[in-house]
Amino acid sequence: MEKQSVTIYTVAREARVSMATVSRVVNGNPNVKPETRQKVLDVIKQLNYRPNAVARGLASKKTTTVGVVIPDITDPYFAELALGIDDVASMYKYNIILTNSDSDDGKIFKVVRNLLAKQVDGIIFMGHDVSDELKNEFASTNTPVVVAGSVVNDDSLPSVRIDYQAAAKEATAFLLKRGAQQVAYITGPLQYSINSGDRLSGYKSALADDNKDFDDSLVIETDGSYQAGYAKAKEIIEKGIKAAYVTDDSLAAGLLNGLTDAGVKVPDDFELVSSNDTKYTKLVRPMITSITQPLYDIGAISMRLLTKLMDGDDSNDDEKNVILDHGFVERQSTRK
Amino acid sequence: MEKQSVTIYTVAREARVSMATVSRVVNGNPNVKPETRQKVLDVIKQLNYRPNAVARGLASKKTTTVGVVIPDITDPYFAELALGIDDVASMYKYNIILTNSDSDDGKIFKVVRNLLAKQVDGIIFMGHDVSDELKNEFASTNTPVVVAGSVVNDDSLPSVRIDYQAAAKEATAFLLKRGAQQVAYITGPLQYSINSGDRLSGYKSALADDNKDFDDSLVIETDGSYQAGYAKAKEIIEKGIKAAYVTDDSLAAGLLNGLTDAGVKVPDDFELVSSNDTKYTKLVRPMITSITQPLYDIGAISMRLLTKLMDGDDSNDDEKNVILDHGFVERQSTRK
DNA sequence: AAAATAGTTGGAAACGTTTGCCAATTAAGG
DNA sequence: CCTTAATTGGCAAACGTTTCCAACTATTTT
User: What residue stretches are annotated with the HTH lacI-type domain (chains A, B) (predicted)?
Assistant: First the structure.
């Protein structure tokens, strides 16, 4: 790459002012006489001057860039969050460096380190638990981090999410209330605390309220994918299960289609409730009854919170963990 | 943000060498004695030194960052491409600045300008036509740009895609071959040349081969969304249409569900072929017969091509427009 | 009319790297 | 040992901004 042709210095020379003045007009500093400002602006337009953000970043120690780590961009849940993040980021003039982590601890660590090297002003983290290594990395920097739409085994990080436990409890209770004898808990990796902790607790709590014993054989663990759900249909039919709370929409959609393709009638012969209210729940037939969450808003609010932290607004320490309201919609995968 | 605490200079001092040497070991320059290298490496680890990528970018004029402009990250088509892009980007140690353009000319221009200001080493552009303003912008820079999975009214830009015209022709012909009297062309905005040009030509060409006249009333334009498809079902039923080639999967899924919900049996009473083979086609029931394209590969190859261009490898000018093979799968939305 | 004040501008030192050039050290050959 | 050629390492100049501080100008104030 050859030397940048028109720099702040070129503009300064052409407009017969100093670089300091050019810098001021570019950055909207009011201490510039209107005529001078206009003259500089004219030269800028004429020369098609484009300020170099890298140099600016070095001098000002702000890059107006935030890092976003996402497990899988093609997952509708995370994609929806990402949309909210991006929208408010661009509203606040931030750019986003987006990196897929594949939920792989090693890779996560690498991408975060890289993000930090790039001097991002902040990080939005979506994913599952954070490794000790990563924890140290976060601790060793004062770049603000917010966790979005996930629960992570590090309470020290600000986060924006819903109350997964309460939501799971309601979903399970809903199934129980309508007489299901046994409700399975079909989940993504139990290695993630959101599944083995929050949601499972909610599930158990609903069981307890209904005076049902927890039956270990009813928790069915998968990798959380559509394919996994589809494949599990057979096993679930064989087990004689008639109702299930599912922790993920892709998984639920797979299960539903697997069931249907195997001739099981949903909701008549099987009732199903899912967790995230992504597009998938409305795409399949029957449509899936689900916990609802304001996905876009979770992303948007996370980013908004991050902007505050980046501005050094450390007030409202109590607001650092934002729990948004969730809801519930009955659709076609449960009986009326 | 306070001054970075440990810099290359700190390391140099601690290791009793010059910054030049530290720079060399960090960048794997071979001209440094093994012991020296080891000593420096030790200090780096001990101090947890993290090279400042911004300073590096300024000095070296390379940011190892590429800009990606995407119309909508939640669209499964683009998300799938993005995944391929991200994977090979990280393979080549590039980061990605991802920006949603919302297919809005004004916003596109702004984000591209911003990307350029950030000194990205290259740009992957997904979207529709490029405005004159944007064309000038691309022309005024020598940052390489590649167009991925889209057709854009600027032949001068390298691109990676399939032959949309041929694919549309095959899809239409498929429907015609099995006796459909009239095949509708249900499309996203005709303002985009991919729809008004490539695909429509393919459609017409298939009609001509089958000695059918082109009927303007059979081209139905929408905004391309799921909702639009769903809403159009009524009109399509009223028009007595029995078969359609649809230019987008979201649109097709919406239409399919709209039809089904209105009591139309697909494929018995209506046959449907879609264009992109995204997850949506397999999620809905009946599953949608579709043109297939290697989505992930399109993204991956685009990025690979971009790396070559960024390396200044301008050989193979003929390879600058990569047309990948497409296919076709019969699924359940067409009769056997 | 001198002094104080406010408003504009310029000068120059950062910011943390990379890199071209040159000096010094080491190894090799005679 | 001396000469020559590698190899290694250091110096310092970029890179293109921001920003602190000083200086200058034009107003007010006294």
Answer: 6-60
Q: Looking at the complex, report in whole angstroms how far the Cα of residue B55 sits from the nearest Cα belonging to chain A.
A: 6
Which residues in range 28-87 of chain A are in contact with strand D, contact meaning CB within 7 A of any of its atoms? 49-52, 55-56, 58-60
Name the residue among B252, B243, B246, B244 with its Cα closest to residue B279: B252
A82, A121, A253 ranked by CB distance to B73: nearest: A82
What order of strands is seen across the sheet that includes strand A327-329?
A: A219-221, A184-187, A243-246, A271-274, A289-292, A327-329
Among the listed residues B183, B280, B277, the one whose alpha carbon sits nearest the alpha carbon of residue B230: B280
Q: Is B334 contained in some domain?
A: no
Q: Following CA atoms A118, A119, A120, A123 in sequence, which dihedral angle do they give, to the nearest 10 degrees?
A: 90
DSSP class of B153: S
Contacts for A52 with CB less than 8 Å, ≥ 6 apart: A4, A7, B58, B117, B119
Q: How many C-beta atoms lie closer than 10 Å to residue A29's C-beta?
A: 12
Q: What is the pLDDT of residues A278-328, one digit of tens each?
A: 999 999 999 999 999 999 999 999 999 999 999 987 666 556 889 999 999
Residue B333 falls inside a structural domain:
no
Distance, CA of A222 to CA of A220 (rounded, Å): 7
Q: What is the pLDDT of residues B164-211, one digit of tens each?
A: 999 999 999 999 998 878 999 999 999 999 999 999 999 999 999 999
Assess contact for A154 and A320: CB atoms under 8 A. no
- The answer to whether the CB of B247 falls within 8 A of the CB of B199 is yes
Domain encompassing residue A144: 65-162+295-326
B52 touches chain A (CB under 8 A): yes
In a domain, B336, yes or no: no
Residue whose pair of structure tokens reads 């391929």 in the numeric block: B84
Q: In the Cβ-directed half-sphere of A115, how many Cα atoms lie within 13 Å?
A: 35
DSSP type of residue B217: G
**What is the torsion angle, in degrees rounded to the nearest 10, for the CA atoms of residue A253, residue A255, residue A261 and residue A266?**
-80
The one-letter code for the residue type at A69 is V
- The verdict on A155 and A302 lying in the same domain is yes
Does residue A283 belong to any structural domain of this protein? yes
| Nucleotides on chain C within 7 angstroms of protein Cβ | 7-12, 14-20
**165-204 in chain A: CB under 8 A from chain B:** none
Q: Is A250 helix (H, G, I), strand (E, B) or coil?
A: helix
